[in-house]
Inverse folding.
C-alpha cells in the first residue's frame, strides 16, 4: 500500500472508531514524522494499527515519540496483535523517549507496565470527567 493511502486510511479508521472526529490523528497523518504499522489477515482485512509521531506536548518541551493510537479490531483482541503492533511501531522509530496517554484504569495501565512503560504523570485534560495517565518508556 502506498504511504499516502495508508496514512489516509489510518486517519479515517481512527476517526470512525470514535463517536467524534480526532483532528490530531487526521493532521498528524500528513506529517513527515508520522509513523504507522498495520496488521492484516491473510485476505488483507485490517486487524489493527498503531500510529504515532514526534511531539513535545506530553513532555512540556522534551522531544519524544508519542504513541498516539493502538487499535485492534474487537473480535481479534487477546491474540497478541496489539503487542506485536506496539513492538513494531517502536522498532520503526529512532531510539529515545516515548510517551503515551491513556485512561487511568488498571486494564490499560497494567498492560503498558508489562510492556515496559511507567507512569510519568496523571492528568484530567480540559473538561474531561475521566482521569488519564501519561506513561513513558525508553527504547
Amino acid at each position: 500500500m502506498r504511504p499516502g493511502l495508508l496514512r489516509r486510511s489510518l486517519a479515517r479508521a481512527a476517526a470512525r472508531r470514535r463517536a467524534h472526529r480526532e483532528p490530531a490523528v487526521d493532521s498528524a497523518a500528513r506529517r513527515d514524522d508520522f509513523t504507522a504499522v498495520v496488521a492484516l489477515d491473510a485476505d488483507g482485512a485490517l486487524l489493527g494499527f498503531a500510529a504515532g509521531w514526534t511531539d513535545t506536548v506530553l513532555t512540556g518541551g522534551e522531544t519524544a515519540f508519542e504513541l498516539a493510537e493502538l487499535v485492534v479490531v474487537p473480535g481479534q483482541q487477546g491474540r497478541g496483535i496489539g503487542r506485536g503492533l506496539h513492538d513494531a511501531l517502536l522498532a520503526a522509530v529512532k531510539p529515545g523517549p516515548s510517551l503515551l496517554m491513556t485512561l487511568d484504569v488498571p486494564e490499560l495501565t497494567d498492560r503498558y507496565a508489562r510492556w515496559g512503560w511507567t507512569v510519568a504523570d496523571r492528568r484530567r485534560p480540559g473538561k474531561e470527567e475521566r482521569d488519564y495517565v501519561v506513561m513513558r518508556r525508553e527504547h
Q: What stands out?
A: The chain is about 30% helix and 30% strand.
